[in-house]
Amino acid sequence: MKRYKLTIQPEYCNDWSIADAIREILQNCLDAPSTFEWDAGLDYMTLTSKNTQLPQSTLLLGNTSKRGDKDSVGGKGEGYKLAMMILVREGVGIEIRNGNKLWVPIIEWDQDFEANMLVVNETELTNNTDLTFFIKDIDQDTIDTVIHNCLYLQDQNSFGNYATAGCGSRIFFDVEGLLYVGGLFVCSTNLQYSYDLHPSKIKLTRDRRECSGWDLQGVTASLLKEVAEPKRIVEAAQKDVADVHHMQYSWSVSSIPSEVADEAYNVFKEAYGDDAVVAESYSEMVSLQEQGFVKPVVVNDSFARLIRSSSDYETTFSEQEDALEVEEEKSPLELLEEWKAEWGYNNSPSGLESFEKILDIFRERELEYKYAAKNKTVKGEFDDIQF
């Protein structure tokens, strides 16, 4: 019998649970370029990579064949070693049927280090070509947690409505705020949808429980553009959910699909009317009002970006700008007469009569007008006008 001493103390990673340890083994099996099989009973689980073996060199902490492999979640060279130590520490039985070798990890006292450490005992095994982790003496709650935290152990039909991107990442539209990477649960998020990202798309922390929120929002915005229906993208932008916050950085205006932009403008028109124009802030709304636009409406940045990308919106906005330019060219008398025609009869009779007198004075005196470079001025005498 061979014995491999691993210089890992039992107290290491003392915040990891049994389910966390099994997750590491699951990850090792899923990363392997082979067929994955699994089974579970009342108090055990088996996780198998077909026709695969681990060389004894992988028992060295830091040794891994996955370093730099963008298709793998792991790559630190410590996952399954730590998992063995935690399972033994917690009183869980584990055997590794590694091709023609049987590995049984134990914790025992070492005279040289004068401390407890992990030791793997190796014996011969016949009629086996696979790599199987046999884990026993675990309760049903732990088994349920492991299954819940790995998409590949669940019924694919239970995921609800989802879409798959070209890279293999998936978006689950019926489940809110869960992040998986490579099929393994990472953490809960503030996102509208749930995601299972390909390992190449996001970098996880060492214990694979967190990632950069900024990076995650960049990935989700790109995935939604690739696979989501225009209506769903527009709804997300209108609600300003975190999934699309990165849109303004990762979507150039020229890359926004026209069907998405047109859907956004249609939703905007239905809500605010055909004459509404977009403003991204209160100050922009005031500026548009001062320019003469009738109905500027403040919306969030993501929604505004989609609307302004619509060729129909560009046409509408240009037409309103042109109409304002024509308005500026009219004389003060023309503007007053148009005001009377549109609004005069909504005022009181006495107010309308007074306004009519003002119009008569303008008509009689044939006032001249001109436009300065920045400010419009009107020439005339107003001394005898009574308001």
Report strand order across the widest sheet: 1-6-5-4-7-3-2
Helix content: 25-40%
Spatial gap, N to C terminus? 111 Å
What is the third-level CATH name, the topology of the largest domain? Heat Shock Protein 90
Oligomer state equals: single chain
| Average pLDDT metric | 85
Q: Could you spell the SSE succession in H and E letters?
A: EHEEHEEEEHEEEEEHHHHEHEHHHHEE
Number of helices: 12
Low-confidence stretches: 67-74, 369-387
Main structural class:
alpha+beta
- In terms of DSSP E residues, the strand content is 15-25%
Number of strands: 16
Whole-number count of domains: 4
Describe the biggest sheet? 7 strands, antiparallel
Reported CATH architecture of the largest domain = 2-Layer Sandwich
| Cα Rg | 35 Å
CATH classification class of the largest domain: Alpha Beta
Shape: rod-shaped
Note down, in words, how this protein is organized.
The chain is of the alpha+beta class. It folds into four domains: 2-153, 2-Layer Sandwich (Heat Shock Protein 90); 156-244, no CATH class; 268-328, no CATH class; 332-378, no CATH class. Helices cover 37% and strands 21% of the residues. It is built from twelve helices and 16 strands. The strands form four sheets. Strands 1-6-5-4-7-3-2 form a seven-stranded antiparallel β-sheet. A five-stranded mixed β-sheet has the order 8-9-12-10-11. Helix 5 (230-239) packs across helix 7 (258-272) and helix 11 packs antiparallel against helix 12 (349-365). It is rod-shaped. Mean pLDDT is 85; it is low at 67-74 and 369-387.
